Model the fold of this input.
Amino acid sequence: MTISVLLVDDHALVRTGFRMIIGAQPDMEVVGEAADGGEAVDRAAALRPAVVLMDIHLPGLNGVAATGRIARLVPETRVLALSTFDLDEYVLGALRAGASGFLPKDVSPEELTAAVRTVHRGEAAVAPRLLTRLIGTFVRAAPPGPATPPRGLDALTGREREVLALIARGRSNADIAAELAITPSTVKNHISSVFAKTGARDRAQAVIAAYESGLVSPGVPQP
Done:
């Protein structure tokens, strides 16, 4: 199956570079381009691409707002956020809004195409430790409260909360399986249940929920 891609960047030269990279892949094709957020939303609604490469810093409607609108209008489309900076608070906003991944703009062609394939599969294309750095810098945890389950996580079992906390600390599925002495397939089942119960679209949104609920605290060293 060919992965259809919409390119969104206000610099024509950047779009040309991405078009060359995507176009060279046998399983991908560029179906359209947009130079600002409003145009990106219109083009996504009309073309319904599998993946949108979305620059975060756009004139007019920015990439965060455009991502949120695309997530609502075309929920089957996956957005891959792009930024010039590794630590960018707008990237976290895009992940909250529904983006399935984040890449700095200086990634290699191989990293870019691998991330497109990853989000197309429905997975999050954010390096776990980069995600925790973003969240640790920009997310404010809920203040301490009574010993009740954090809002939005009250439906989780004890084991599911353990799994979510480990995801939020940057652990891979294999790491979680080893730490909890369970099989990788059991970890996947727990993660699927966490997504369903919290309403998280993917791993990135689940991690944000873990921090914002207070299950894991930003800035606190994790074992």
Observations:
- The beta strands are 3-8, 28-34, 51-55, 78-83, 101-104.
- The first strand starts at residue 3 and ends at 8.
- The two ends are 41 Å apart (CA to CA).
